[in-house]
Amino acid sequence: MRKQIVAGNWKMNLTVTEGQALVQQVLEQLPELSAQKQVIFGTPFLHLCQAVAQTKDTANVGVAAQNCHHQASGAYTGEIAAGMLQAAGVQSVIIGHSERRMYNHEDNALLAKKVDAALAANLHVIFCCGESLDIRDADTQNAFVEQQLNESIFHLSAEQMAQVTIAYEPIWAIGTGRTASAAQAQDMHAHIRGVLAAKYGESISQQTSILYGGSCKASNAVELFSCPDVDGGLIGGASLLADDFLGIIRAMVSTR
Ligand SMILES: O=C[C@H](O)COP(=O)(O)O
C-alpha cells in the first residue's frame, strides 16, 4: 500500500525560535505513525538544520525544503543547491509550488531541471501541480495538469518516479478558504493516477502518493483523505499552529 503523507509548507512564515517551538509541540503530541504514514515539516531554509536535529530520532517524521536550485553548485548568489540540503540531513524538497511558478517565474522546463537536481542529490521530490480558476472554469484542468506532469516529471525513469510524490494544489483553493470538494479532489487525483499508469504502468501508478493541497484543515481532512486516490495533504496555513496541524495528522492516522 502506498504511503499517506501530511506535509506542512510553512512558506515564508515563523522565526527559527517560533518554528522550533512548533515542531516541539507537534512532536510532543504526535500520534503513533505506522510505517505507511509520514509527517513532513516543510520549512524555510533557515530553519532546516534545527528541524532536522529535532526530528531525527522520530520515526516517519522528516523535513523538506521549499525549493532548490537546478544547478549542483556555482555562482548563483542567494541560492541553495539540492546537495547542500541532502548533506544537511533534509530528506525532501517541494518543487513547482504555484507561488514559485507565479512570483519566481518558474516554468515547466526549469522545474524539470530542478527535479533532476533534487533526485541526483538523493532527495525525495514533492512535485506540485494545479490549475488556476480560469482553467477550472473552462473545464480544461485535466489537460493542464497532465501537461505540467508531462513537461516536468515524465522524462524520469520508473526508478526515479519512485522518489516522487505529487501534490495537486488547485490555485483557486490555496489560502482562500475555498477547498476543492472531496469529489473534485478525487476526480483530479484519479486522473493523475490514470496518467501515471499510462506512462509508467499500474505498479508505479499505485505506489505513487498523490497529496491534496488548498485550504485543507482539520475539519475537512477526514473527508478529503477518505477519497481512494487522495493520499494525504500539503498543508499551508493550517501547518503553522500545532493544534491545527495535529488535527490533520490525526485525520491521516484515522483514515485507511
Ligand atoms: O503548499 C501548501 C498549499 O499552498 C496550501 O496552502 P493553504 O493550506 O494555506 O491553502
From TrEMBL:
Coiled coil: none annotated. It catalyses: D-glyceraldehyde 3-phosphate = dihydroxyacetone phosphate. It comes from the Bacteria. The active site is at H97 (electrophile), E169 (proton acceptor). It is found in: Cytoplasm. It holds the Pfam family TIM. The keyword Protein biosynthesis does not apply. Keywords: Cytoplasm, Gluconeogenesis, Glycolysis, Isomerase. GO terms for molecular function: isomerase activity. Its main location: cytoplasm. Substrate binds at N9, W10, K11, G175, S215, G236, G237. Belongs to the triosephosphate isomerase family. HAMAP family: TIM_B (MF_00147_B). This is Triosephosphate isomerase. It comes from Rurimicrobium arvi.
